[in-house]
Amino acid sequence: MRSGHLLDPLPPAGPDEALDTLLARGGVRIERIVSFGQSSPEDFWYDQAEDEFVLLVSGSATLRFDDGRDVTLTPGVWVDIPAHCRHRVEATAEGEATVWLAMFWPGGTQATT
User: Fold this and answer.
1) Per-residue pLDDT tens for 54-103?
2) Residue 111, in any domain of the structure
């Protein structure tokens, strides 16, 4: 058994986001991502083969989707992103930690509500 705290300790601010894999098992991966004002490079789009569920834990962020939609995330807001849904991180909070909890699994798996 493993355990931890999602918000303590947080990595120091740096030029890149900090990514920690918290769990990887049976095709599922759970990551903690910590941003300090980072965004995706100009003209870069994520186009991943995995489905992704992301929950914003602290800070703020804006995701932009290839179809022109923007989604503003504040603590507690989550987004379910299907595989190959092109998206990018448009902005994250400056001067504070933006903490994401991201879960990935093989693309095309039907989600239930």
Assistant:
1) 999 999 999 999 999 999 999 999 999 999 999 999 999 999 999 999 99
2) no
Report the CATH number that the domain containing residue 82 is assigned in CATH: 2.60.120.10
Does residue 67 form part of some domain? yes
Say what the pTM is. 0.92
* Listed residue (109, 107, 103) closest to 25, CA to CA: 103
Domain interval for residue 48: 19-106
- pLDDT, residue 112, reads 59
User: Do the domain assignments include residue 6?
Assistant: no
Count the domains in the chain: 1
Quick one: which of 38, 48, 50 has its CA closest to 100? 38
Mapping DSSP onto H, E and C, the string for 74-96 reads: CCCCEEEECCCCCEEEEEECCCC
Query: What digits encode the pLDDT tens for the residues 12-65?
Result: 999 999 999 999 999 999 999 999 999 999 999 999 999 999 999 999 999 999
